[in-house]
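for the writeup, i need someone to sanity check this before i put it in the appendix. the sequnce is what the collaborator sent (i think, or maybe the updated version? ugh). structure was predicted straight from it, no edits. if anything looks off just tell me and ill rerun, i have time this weekend
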Amino acid sequence: MSWSTLVIPQSPPYYAYTATLLPSGLIIYIGGLDYLSDVYPVNMSEACLYMLLFLIFHS
């Protein structure tokens, strides 16, 4: 078994979030802090979905 990191150029502009793999194959990113402000939490209604099948984000 090997591990690799996928670099995603259009990833969400925040950090300290939670990412959960859903049974549908989507990954949902919720919460975190905004990179630009470094202190403002991301609005919980602004969750992003990552589509593994197409390797793209959808908000």
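The two ends are 32 Å apart (CA to CA). The first strand starts at residue 14 and ends at 15.
thx in advance!!
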